[in-house]
Design brief:
With 323 residues, this protein is of the alpha/beta class. It is built from 15 helices and 11 strands.
Length: 323
């Protein structure tokens, strides 16, 4: 099998490898980013931060820009609809240690779209190009753009968007290979992705449903220089190592249910240390379905887990599990 794993140059930055963690709201915070780097990710991308909120010095949004050295290399994703706040947000991310600044133009969430950000930016490539140019001008680190193949099935927009981003100085484009109307459902459109890859000279990083070496290879075969793994990393932060092994023709090491729970407990402990007990446990509960699975009575354990309010209670619950 051809080796697709290599370091990846994005503008002035060279990533250790080309299998990255995708940004996921409410998931890819500092503790999880550090965990995925230990699991083999080349770069980890943070959950998106509102440029508008940063402009008004929103405390929560500013906290989201915090970067620990254990989380590097890291790409900080911002979203917004006007040039001034995008430029300010890009600079704020750089000043706090981001290796890459990424602009979101693919999120289909209605709240984001109503503010003129996310995937609706694909409707106006000229305006989107100005946002990219504003960010590029504001920072010295590479700027990337994350978008989709299009808004609706069968209507390709990603190629034009990618060319606009390239022309305005973006160092790479990240393409979710599904239309915005599909959100995370259905098979990725690899033919559309291949057209986008062929339309630009900057690296294209593919995203959407990648979970193992076989799915990763399809994206590389379409012409991608790198890939981003999202939900497959939740519950298995070593998926990056697994994909590398499988693409090299080797067998990947399965993650047992016992080991998964051990990693989850360590992550919960990190969250508590990072956010405090109440918020740390609350954030951890959002992904319980990915971690507490594939063992007897897993559904019942999840039900008991989400009712826990203390770290001591969670430790006691997990200590009594049978695998």
């Amino acid at each position: 099998m051809t080796s697709f794993i290599h370091s990846l140059k994005i503008g002035s930055f060279r990533a250790p490898n080309n299998i990255w963690l995708a940004p996921m709201a409410g998931v890819t915070d500092g503790p999880f980013r550090a965990l995925c780097l230990r699991g083999g990710a080349g770069v980890v991308c943070a959950e998106m931060v509102s440029a508008h909120a940063l402009h008004y010095a929103n405390a929560r949004s500013l906290r989201m820009l915090r970067i620990d050295e254990r989380e590097k290399p890291v790409s900080m994703q911002i979203f917004g609809a006007d040039e001034q706040t995008i430029a300010q947000a890009a600079l704020a991310a750089q000043e706090r240690g981001a290796d890459i600044v990424d602009i979101n133009a693919g999120c289909p969430v209605k709240k984001i779209n109503k503010a003129g950000a996310g995937c609706v930016l694909m409707k106006d490539p000229v305006h989107l190009g100005r946002l990219v140019a504003a960010a590029v001008k504001a920072v010295s680190v590479p700027v990337t753009l994350k978008t989709r193949i299009g808004l609706k099935n069968g209507v390709l927009l990603g190629d034009e968007i990618a060319r606009v981003a390239q022309n305005e100085g973006a160092a790479a484009v990240i393409i979710h290979a599904r239309a915005a109307e599909n959100v995370h459902n259905g098979e990725p459109d690899l033919a559309a992705l291949a057209k986008i890859c062929a339309s630009v000279q900057i690296p294209v990083i593919g995203n959407g449903g990648i979970k193992d070496g076989a799915t990763a290879q399809k994206f590389f075969d379409a012409g991608c220089s790198g890939i981003m793994v999202g939900r497959a990393a939740v519950g298995n932060p070593f998926v990056f190592q697994n994909i590398c092994a499988e693409l090299a023709g080797k067998e990947s090491a399965p993650l047992t249910a016992r080991r998964r729970v051990e990693i989850y407990l360590a992550l919960i402990e990190e969250n508590v240390a990072h956010y405090g007990e109440k918020i740390g446990i609350g954030r951890s509960k959002k992904t319980a379905g990915y971690w507490l699975r594939d063992f007897p009575m897993a559904a019942e354990v999840r039900g008991r887990f989400v009712r826990q309010e203390t770290l001591a209670g969670i430790r006691e619950l997990f200590a009594g599990l049978s695998f």
